[in-house]
Amino acid sequence: MSEVVSSILGPLLEKLASSTVEEIQLVGGVKDDQEKLKNKLEMIEKVLADAEQKQTKEEAMRLWLSRLKDFCYDVEDVLDEFEARALWRQARLTEYLTLKSKVHYQAPWLSNFIFQFKMAHKMKKLRKRLDGINEERTQFNLSSDVANKIIVPRRETHSFVSPSNVIGRINETKSIIELLISSDDGGATTIEIIPIIGMGEKCDSWALEMLQNQLRHLVEDKRCLFVMDDVWEVTREDWVGLRDLLGGVSEGSKIIVTSRNQSIASIMGTVPPLNLANLSREDSLILFVNCAFDQGQEKNYPDLMVIGEEIVSKCGGNPLAVKTLGSLLFSKKNNRTDWEYVRDSEMWQLETDILPSLRISYDLMPSYLKRCFAYCSIFLKNYEFNNLDLIQLWISNGLIQSSGNNKELEEIGRQYLEELWSRSFFDFVREDYPFLFFRMHDLIHELAISVAQTELSNMKVHAQDISPETRHISFPNPSRIPKDELHGCLSKLSRIRTIMLEDGSSGEFLLEMCISRFKHLRVLWLDYSSFDLLPSSIGSLKHLRFLSLWGNWDIKKLPDSICKLHNLQCLDLGLCMELEELPADIKNLISLRVLYITTKQQRFPERGIGCLTSLRWLLIASCENLEALFDDIQLLTSLRKMFIVHCPKLASLPQGIKNLNALEDLWIRYCRNLKLPEDE
């Protein structure tokens, strides 16, 4: 991901000039190193646009950018040390000021001395490394006059092309109808369709057996048409089980199966698959016009239509390519140069498995979007992610750049997400308020993996060929990987910032190793884990920003050490159904912005959640015993969103809730005993 160094360097320079420097001032001899780092990085920043454009052709340039990127990350880690120290001081001071019986506050001078000595040494090493990187820069004859070629996002009010507005496919439609109305022996008709739009809603809350019984009863002795949309993976055993489940339907029932995977047809099909060919040139142009212009507006831009036809011809009839480039150019109808840039891009000539049109769309993204998009390669193909998780993952990794107009990071993250959606890099799947669910087309996902290069790794089954440069890694099924292989894999890594462990019995072993080894960990995703105790050593992860235990039905207690995580911004305890209570010192999580709670408590203690003054989102769900919240809720002056769901014993809300002036959204559902004051 060396082509996005500029998006790392910009925020890094801001950090070097920010309040972090106040902590640096306390370390003797470091101020000079900090100034030299800042000055040389500013010089390098001026020529980055030229370097990033040349790297596609020059291997030496790509390697230099890669070294610069690694250096920037290492500087960021050191600055994080200073920030963590400042937060530690703040938490200690706050704790001292709130003690009922105040004792004499004594600064830990020995600890301070050791910290200052260690940090001074690290800063000097960084300065020497940058001297070498800067010297290499002079060999490339880079220009500061090259501007980044970025196409700005289209306006948010544009109406997306409706999936029901099918373009072309007349012959295929006729073939499907003929297959549906033809008489047969009562078997299922399977039709393979490669390009797919959309996906049905999941019924996650229903037990599988209940769903099966409902379905069997619903279709028995009826002639039915079933549509299985976008089937990605199925075994012969799965298919036989489903076929038996539907055995009670009447003769003449049909099943349409759509997929991008050719092997699905051989498993499920009873007739030859119908393979969709590429769109015709005419249909491709119609799709492009629908995405690039408002209805009828193309008539006002005959010169752009000529260029658009040439762009469409290079897409080879691929609907995703046409749609992506059309969406990209929507906002540039007054800039012929950008249309010509897309048409004449050298990317069309590159021999690669990634569609050139998708790569062009990526290259024309603003640098801040590139990093956010590449980070999404950490998800599995076809994975559904929601807006809240994704935005908090971006924030936790420093991918959201604060603006000068005091916008909340969550609001900026929402704009990033909508921009990627508008560029057709994300597909909207469903809404389950307050969550919006998205996923990436498989070709888009491959592009994300390609541009992330060695920085992100998603280990499906085997932990092989992981680069030592990897910073973000996920293990969707850790229990399927032998422990010795996992140990060997993780032993090669030292720069990890994100660990995703999901649904695996090897979680405890992996977790212990990750905590002990990766001290700069920012994201720890443990969804669907099954351990009943979180190691107390988690308190040593002083840079951790994101911790999710969502869906752990076994954990009963959180260690007190979790309250030492002063950098923690998102804590997700949703559907931790056996969690007995929140830690007593939760008030020490002074940076917390998002808190999602499921607990067996009857009420929350005072001077707990109410002290989390950085909190923006508070979600309280499935708390079966909860009778009351906390009376000091009015102290949450930054709270924007509050959701209370499935709390059947909750009887009332605290009076202070009406004083939450920043609150934008209060959502209450399935709280049957809750009584609201009539005059409120």
Can you characterise this structure?
- Strand 4 and strand 5 form a beta hairpin.
- The relative contact order is 0.06.
- The chain is globular, with a radius of gyration of 28 Å.
- Helix 17 crosses helix 18 and helix 20 packs parallel to helix 21.
- The chain has 680 residues and is of the alpha/beta class.
- The chain has 4 domains: 136 residues; 99 residues, no CATH class; 89 residues, Arc Repressor Mutant, subunit A (Orthogonal Bundle); 215 residues, Leucine-rich repeat, LRR (right-handed beta-alpha superhelix).
- The longest helix has 40 residues.
- The chain has a 10-stranded parallel sheet with strand order 6-7-8-9-10-11-12-13-14-15, sandwiched between helices. It has a 3-stranded antiparallel sheet with strand order 3-5-4.
Brief synopsis:
With 680 residues, this protein is an alpha/beta fold. Helix content is 39%, strand content 9%.
Biggest sheet strand order reads 6-7-8-9-10-11-12-13-14-15
Terminus-to-terminus distance: 53 Å
Helix content: 25-40%
The residue-averaged pLDDT reads 82
Number of domains: 4
Query: What class do helices, strands and sheet pairing give?
Result: alpha/beta
Low confidence ranges: 150-164, 185-206
Backbone shape? globular
- CATH C-level of the largest domain: Alpha Beta
CATH topology type of the largest domain? Leucine-rich repeat, LRR (right-handed beta-alpha superhelix)
The number of distinct β-strands equals 15
* CATH superfamily descriptor of the largest domain: Ribonuclease Inhibitor
Approximately how much beta-strand content do the residues carry? Answer: 5-15%
Rounded to an integer in angstroms, the radius of gyration calculated over CA atoms is 28 Å
**CATH architecture heading of the largest domain:** Alpha-Beta Horseshoe
Number of helices: 21
Reported for the largest beta sheet, the result is: 10 strands, parallel
